[in-house]
Every structure is written in structure tokens, then in C-alpha cells.
Write a structure and sequence with these properties.
mainly alpha
């Protein structure tokens, strides 16, 4: 699809302010997309519950699985909103300045997987914690597959739609990065240290998205994070969704920052390429 006639010629294209460069843009349209996405997502989630015959969500692993499914419904609903209102294809929504780069995604995913694997396996290998639950195969697969999609969905919403909406209004990338991180943290009902940890994670994911001009790195890292978190709870390695303590805060910040630092170093030596490639 030829996108050249959709852009305003007088504005420079940049990830956070990208929507403002579209001929179809108006200040109120991001709000319309958000409303449409949340309404459609709510309806789809309710339909899923009804089909499953579930009357109450409850707590524990099932509630986390349902939360993942609900977030995943944001992928088609945000896409529909962007397609109807901005009239842009999916590829432009997730990497507007250049083409989506699977190489970046795969490398960031592998790097994050190794980092999380080493740090998460250490307590098990040293017998500090033990696996206490035997999940059915079907549930185990859900704990692996759903977080991969959920991670992308959260990035599509927060580092995509929200960050670009704020960017299109304020025209200052750092403001957009901070505001989306605050909302991302507020989406998680955690105690203080865990809340600050999520806020910092949102800031780091926002920065790597802005620097890389696409959602590949943050989506890959977020997918690995969600997978390990859900598996840890499902296998009895972690009792709470997010522990609130200074030690856990430092650990979470470290495990989030290390893959980002490695990706930036690889980009410096051209082993990962963030260079813009016009569509």
C-alpha cells in the first residue's frame, strides 16, 4: 500500500509524534480510538467468559490467564480503531517509520530469554526454591503461549497507542514516554515497590521503543517477562503476582535493564540495526 499521500509534507516523522504527521489526524481521534478499542475489548472479553460458562473470575492462576486473554483482545480492537480512523495498515501502526524487523524481535527475545533464564534458574539450582505444582499440559501451554501475545498487546497499547497519542498532543517524546509509563503502572494494582518497578519498566520499554522507532524490542522483552512471571506463579515458584520489597525492586529493575543494555550495545556495533527504512 502506498502511504506517501497519507503524510503531511511539512512534519518530520518520528515514532512518538507519528500520528500528527498523518493527513487523517485530528487531536480528538486518539481518544476515539481508545474508546472504540476498550468498548470492543470489553464486549469480546464478556463473550469469551460467556462461552466458557464462567460467572466469576476468582483469584489465582485462572484470573491471571483471563487477564492475559482480555489484554490480548486489545490487539484486534486497537487495529480496528487505527484502521477505521487513521486508515493505516497494521505494519504502519507497530513500526511507522520503517518496516517491522523480525531480526530485532528475535534477537531481543533470545537475549532476554537467556538473562531471565539464568537469573530465574539460579534459585532452583541452588535449592533455594522448589517446584511444587504440577500443571496440566493444557494449562502449561497457556502459560507459555498467552504471555507471548499479552506482551505484544501491552506494548501495542502503552508504547504504541498511548505513547503516540501523548506524543501527537505534546510533540515532546520524553513527555509521551513518562505519561505512558505512569498509566502502564496504574494498570497494575501492586504495592509500592512493585508499582515503582512497573513504572521503571514502562519508562525503559518506552525509551527502547523510541530509540528503536518500533515495538520489536519492547514486545520481545515484555513477552519473556510475562511468560516467566506466569510460569513462576503456576509452578509455585512465586506466590504473589508481584512481591513488594526493595530487594525485589532492585532485582526486577536489573533483569529489565540488562537486556536493553545488551541490545543497545549490539546496535552500536551494528549487530542489531535500528536504522530507519522508509516504507
Amino acid at each position: 500500500m502506498d502511504m506517501s499521500n497519507l503524510f503531511k509534507k511539512t512534519e518530520e516523522k518520528e515514532f512518538t509524534t507519528f500520528p500528527a504527521t498523518l493527513e487523517t489526524y485530528a487531536w480528538y481521534k486518539p481518544i476515539l480510538i481508545l474508546i472504540l478499542a476498550f468498548v470492543l475489548s470489553t464486549l469480546i472479553s464478556f463473550a469469551i467468559l460467556s462461552l466458557m460458562g464462567v460467572k466469576t473470575i476468582g483469584e489465582g492462576l485462572f484470573s491471571l490467564i483471563y487477564a492475559a486473554i482480555t489484554m490480548i483482545t486489545m490487539i484486534p480492537t486497537i487495529y480496528i480503531g487505527n484502521k477505521l480512523i487513521y486508515k493505516i495498515p497494521f505494519s504502519t501502526q507497530i513500526a511507522p517509520i520503517r518496516k517491522w524487523n523480525w531480526g530485532i524481535y528475535i534477537k531481543a527475545f533470545i537475549i532476554t530469554l537467556i538473562v531471565y533464564g539464568v537469573i530465574s534458574l539460579y534459585p532452583i539450582l541452588t535449592s533455594q526454591v522448589k517446584i511444587t505444582n504440577n500443571l496440566p499440559i493444557a494449562i502449561l501451554l497457556l502459560c507459555i503461549i498467552l504471555p507471548l501475545l499479552q506482551g505484544f498487546a501491552e506494548e501495542y497499547l502503552c508504547r504504541g497507542l498511548l505513547m503516540q497519542s501523548f506524543g501527537s498532543w505534546f510533540k515532546i517524546p520524553i513527555v509521551a514516554i513518562i505519561l505512558q509509563a505512569v498509566i502502564f503502572a496504574l494498570m497494575h494494582n501492586y504495592q509500592i515497590y512493585a508499582f515503582i518497578s512497573v513504572l521503571c519498566t514502562g519508562l525503559l520499554y518506552g525509551l527502547i521503543t523510541w530509540y528503536g522507532q518500533g515495538l520489536e524490542s519492547s514486545s520481545a522483552m515484555h513477552a519473556v517477562n510475562n511468560t516467566f512471571s506466569l510460569l513462576a506463579i503456576g509452578l509455585g515458584l512465586q506466590k504473589e503476582v508481584a512481591n513488594s520489597s526493595p530487594h525485589t525492586f532492585i532485582l526486577n529493575l536489573t533483569i529489565t535493564a540488562i537486556p536493553i543494555i545488551i541490545v543497545l550495545i549490539l546496535n552500536k556495533y551494528h549487530l542489531i540495526r535500528f536504522e530507519s527504512k522508509e516504507k
